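Collaborator request, handled under Task 6.
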Amino acid sequence: MNIIPLYKELRTLQGSVFAGKNYRMLKRCIESQGSKVAEAQIEQAIETAIIVSREIGMSPEGIKACLIAPFCTDPTQIEHIRHQMGDSIATILDGIISVQRLYQKNTSIKTDNFRNLLISFAKDMRVILLMIASCTNMMRKMSALCSEDREKHYADTPSEYTHEFMERIAGEASFLYAPLAHKLGLYKIKSELEDISLKILEHDAYYHIKEKLNSTKAARDKYIDNFIGPIEQKLKEQGLQFHIKGRTKSIHSIWQKMKKQKCDFEGVYDLFAIRIILDSPLPKEKAQCWQAYSIITDMYQPNPRRLRDWLSIPKSNGYESLHITVLGPEQKWVEVQIRTERMDDIAEHGLAAHWRYKGVKGGERGIESWLSSIRTALEEGDTMQMMDQFKTDLQSDEVYIFTPKGDLHKLIAGATVLDFAYSIHTNIGDHCTGAIVNEKNAPLRQRLVSGDQVTILTSANQTPKAAWLDYVVTGRAKSKIRQALNEIQTKAVSLAKEILERKFRNRKIELNGNYLNTVIKKMGYKDPNEFYRRVVDDQLDINDIIEQYQLVVKRDLGELDTGTPIHKADEFVLGNNEKEEGLSGEELVIDRNIKGLDYTLAKCCSPIYGDNIFGFVTINNGIRIHRTNCPNAAALRERYGYRIVKARWAGEGGKGTYPIVLHIVGNDDLGVVNNISSILSKDEKVNIRSFSIDSHDGLFEGTLTLMLTDTHQLDSIVKKLRTVKGVKNVSR
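Structure tokens returned to the collaborator:
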């Protein structure tokens, strides 16, 4: 195609660009770039400039940038252009280059993330408008190549317009540029892009609907005339000034309704809409719109569920209109839109963006606000003063990051390399050692910015560290790191216990948990997990632990010499058999009514009234009372059988309290702890001394210390606790 006619058309539309000083400056700037540009690129640039001038209404700065764009493909040229043409044009061209580089990352455009990233990269709203115009120009060329005969179409298309190329451009137009055009109020361009996309992507559906529309056009026009005839007469009788438009829905819109309603063409009842446009003075606009509404609903039955009142409360984007659906002749539903000339002008030229009304998913709030403000700029003129607020102040709350394959990930602002690793996969995050960001090595904590291309580096030997929690900002990464740390800790505790049990078994020493806990506290560890971790890391000498353990056991059994006098058996006072009934309620009767001895309850088994017990005569701490099923009972009988004495409880239970430790295991369900506490609080005789709980892997383990009177009360409490939903086991 000869570009001369296009050039002349553009000069007619934008005379100021090609006159005097402006033209010489534009020509000098293009010549200074020294780029070899094909005639097809120049033709494309001029065609796009015509669209932005005639159909979008951009200022001369946008037209100049559009013409210079084919000659400016490198960021290093921007400063030279800024010096020659000014900041405005340089900013537009910088945005175009950024967007072109975004496309080179080979990412999928069919995501909301890409739409937001595109706007962020554009930096200036005029870049988006130029991209929409360029896409429209390309789509019109492809539309001209399409025909109803698919085989003929593919045979006649130029070699560069392959099937894959046309489908890719049509997909971009449908998913990306049509919604953006709609958001900007460029309704005609939006509908055109959607229809051409359907023509390319759904060839048979497009021509099927087109054929149906052509075959029914005469009947449809006749129906519209019959419908609006009585309305026109009534409106004139009321003295209203108006004109009426009949509008058939776009082919794309009809196709969407057919898919949504799962019906054929004949099942789409609202193929067209009637628009009544009143020539009304501003003070009387609303009153006359409602007057027209009253006239129409008197003539035709309205559907109240389909009333849309954007007169009383206009849309957030400024759209004003009154929509009703009425039952017309032949029992057909017809949509009627009532508005004034002013409202219609705003709707047609930029302020009526039915983004949410049409069911298109809205973008992020910051992007939404930014695009909404663009409409005001379009309405009031594309001046430099109004462009300043849009240039670089789009501070998004998100960053958009590319994988090496071009996949796009959205993260919150401030996200780091480690956040990105966990966003891909938990396993990658757990083993992350760093990354390559834009071909440079980067540490775990490096913050990412939109457009970064990131390759995550991993190692099988890497494991999450507690310090990583300071490196991340996303909830997912924090949760996964905590989960991994808990799992590592659980494994470490389990492994440490296995190591200790094996070492103790080799020394033929029975390992008791209560004694070990005492050892852990005596060694200065408030957190047992830290003790176990040091055992696993070989930072503690197991022999030292065993020695400490043996000292604790000896002290508990009374074998440790503390320098106090040794009591001999002949110092014990023998009681009289006849006086047994006179014993105090909590006294112990040991063997044959020996009483008046010093005794203590063993901490290893915590006996209470009602337990089967025996006494163990210590060297210097009197008699230690154990339960017969105490973990240490077998060893004591085997090694010190001569120091074992029989024992039983004397008197009645319930006159004193004893500490008892219960171990509870159950599912870590919401409310299970509250249910346990509720049951205990209802029993007035139960005194809770402590309650500690630890949860992991969906289970909880709790240690509950109570002050109880006897085994009957203990059995009752255990029975109640086992009825709590989620509790799996209760034991002493």
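The cover message to the collaborator said: "The chain has six domains: 3-186, 209-349, 398-473, 483-557, 569-649, 658-731. The chain is about 50% helix and 15% strand. Please let us know whether this matches your experimental observations."
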